[in-house]
Amino acid sequence: MKRVLLFLTISLLLISCAKEGKSKEEIIKKNITEKLKTNFKNPDSFEFISMTIKKTIPVKERKKTITKEYLDKVKKLNKELDSPELLHQAQTELDYLEKQTDENADAVYYVDFVAKGENSFGGTIQNTYSATVLNDDKYTVLKVK
C-alpha cells in the first residue's frame, strides 16, 4: 500500500511540474499555431514543421521605434484606412514597453515559423511565416506574415 501511495504521489508531482514548466519556445509555438490555424481553410490539416527565433530586440532599441508619436500616426492612419489590427499591435506593444524598467531585457522576438496544411483545393502546401512576438508574460503574437 505504501508503494502504491508513493508511486501515485511521485506521478502526481511529475505531471504537475511538467504542465507548469513549459518553455518560452513551446508557448510561442502554441500561440503562433493558434493564430495561424484561424486562417487555414482546413485547420485540422495544420502540421508544425519548425520554428526559429531569428532576432531579438531589446527594450531600449524598441522604445526608439514604438513611441506615443508612432501610436498617434497609427491612430490617424486607422481613421483613413481602417486598420484596427495595426492599431491594436501598436497599442499593445507601447503599453508593454511603458511598463518596462530593464532597458536591456528582450522586448520583441522575430520568429521564422514553418508549417504545412491543405489549401482550398485539397493539396498540401508548406509555408514559412514571419511572426513578431512580444516578450510579455503570455508571449503575445503581434503579427504573422
List how many beta strands DSSP finds: 4
Instruction: Give the fraction of residues assigned to helices.
Output: 40-55%
Strand and helix order: HHEHHHEEE
Radius of gyration from the alpha-carbon trace, in angstroms: 20 Å
Number of helices: 5
**What do the pLDDT scores average to?**
88
Task: Choose one word for the global shape.
Answer: globular
Largest β-sheet summary: 4 strands, antiparallel
Cα end-to-end separation: 56 Å
List unreliable stretches of 5+ residues.
none
Structural class determined from secondary elements:
alpha+beta
- In terms of DSSP E residues, the strand content is 25-35%
Lateral arrangement of strands in the main beta sheet: 1-2-3-4
How do the helices and strands line up, and which of them pair or pack?
Blueprint: H1 2-20, H2 24-37, E1 47-58, H3 59-65, H4 68-81, H5 84-99, E2 106-118, E3 124-134, E4 141-144
Antiparallel strand pairs: 1-2, 2-3, 3-4
Helix pairs in contact: 4-5
Could you characterize what this model shows?
The chain is α+β, with helices and mostly antiparallel strands and 145 residues long. The chain is built from five helices and four strands. A hairpin with a 6-residue loop joins strand 3 (124-134) and strand 4. Helix 4 runs antiparallel to helix 5 (84-99).
Which key phrases capture this entry?
alpha+beta; 145 residues; globular; 4 strands; 28% strand; 5 helices
Describe this structure in a few short sentences.
The chain has 145 residues and is an alpha+beta fold.
